[in-house]
Design a protein that fits this description.
Layout (H helix, E strand, L loop, with lengths): L1 H10 L1 H5 L3 E2 L9 H12 L4 E2 L10 H9 L5 E5 L2 H6 E4 L10 E7 L12 H4 L4 E4 L3 H8 L4 E4 L5 H6 L6 E4 L3 H7 L5 E3 L3 E4 L4 E6 L3 H16 L2 H8 L1 H9 L6 E4 L23
Parallel strand pairs: 1-2, 6-7, 10-12
Antiparallel strand pairs: 3-11, 4-11, 5-8, 5-9, 5-10
């Protein structure tokens, strides 16, 4: 029996002897990308660990560097052509495009900031805050929108409160939880605009890690085919908040071009995208 077990393991080497997948974030993370990733890893028959378990405020630059140097096996990020050149993307948009629909966090006393904004030209009068290495920053700048940046995501909230910039564009799934997590600051979501551009969030692995890329791609496609992916998407608390709080149909849409997309981006008519305006 022991010999049979050994032969079984040799037949499925990746599952029996592969090192645990080093995962971005920490074990208690309830975000949709983390939950989808863990589900895909488990479906692929792999184990995982969280190298950042005791340090939750890791910069995006550090994460990128760790994947490049194989200190981390998989991360998630909004894509860009540069990221897709430097890393290997799994071309399944994890938030089904919701991250490309941005609403703004502002100071509570500036709730009416965009009440008269009806065009991109109007929006150019105001300054956004973003992470220095975020793909969003390149998109905003490419559309000639003023941007103030920082390397550390947590800094953006006190910077906004301190009026270093006027607004903090966030994916429509993000701002309510973020405001709740910074209740000591006087912040709110402005009610008038949605800034819209194609902005898929993908999993990325080291560009030479073809095995893990295939395992994740296959597992996620299985989850899409059997309905698990969509069920997790619709059950996600942030997605449910979007559908109940964002009032997208009542907002004015400011469309931006995204020059950072590659030709591998799923077709705009693909069922991988979610349309909350329907």
């Amino acid at each position: 029996m022991r010999h049979f077990a050994l032969l079984f393991c040799f037949a499925f080497t990746s599952a029996c002897f592969a090192a645990p997948v080093k995962v971005q974030s920490y074990s208690g993370d309830t975000s949709l990308p983390h939950k989808l990733l863990i589900s895909a890893i488990e479906r692929a028959g792999l184990e995982y660990i969280h190298p950042y378990e005791t340090n939750k405020d890791i910069s995006n630059a550090r994460i990128l560097n760790d994947v490049k140097n194989n200190q981390l096996d998989v991360m998630w990020s909004m894509t860009s052509t540069q990221l897709e050149q430097d890393y290997k993307a799994v071309y399944i948009p994890l938030f089904r495009g919701l991250l490309g629909m941005r609403v703004a966090i502002v100071k509570a006393q500036n709730r009416e900031l965009f009440s008269s904004v009806t065009s991109l030209q109007d929006l150019k009068r105001f300054t956004a805050g973003q992470g220095k290495t975020w793909p969003d920053t390149k998109i905003l700048k490419a559309n000639q929108l003023p941007v103030v940046t920082t390397l550390k995501y947590p800094n953006l909230f006190p910077m906004l409160e301190g009026e270093r910039f006027d607004y903090f564009p966030r994916g429509v799934n993000e701002p309510w939880d973020e405001i709740a997590n910074h209740s000591e600051l006087n912040l709110t979501v402005e009610p008038y605009l949605v800034i819209k551009y194609t902005a898929p969030l993908y999993f990325f692995v080291n560009k030479n890690n073809h095995t893990l890329h295939k395992q994740l791609n296959d597992a996620l496609n299985e989850m899409i085919a059997d309905g698990t992916f969509n069920a997790m998407f619709l059950a996600d608390s942030q997605v449910q908040t979007v559908l109940s709080k964002a009032n997208l149909s009542s907002r004015r849409v400011i469309e931006l071009d995204n020059p950072t997309l590659s030709s591998n981006t799923p077709n705009k008519n693909s069922p991988l995208w979610f349309n909350p305006f329907q």
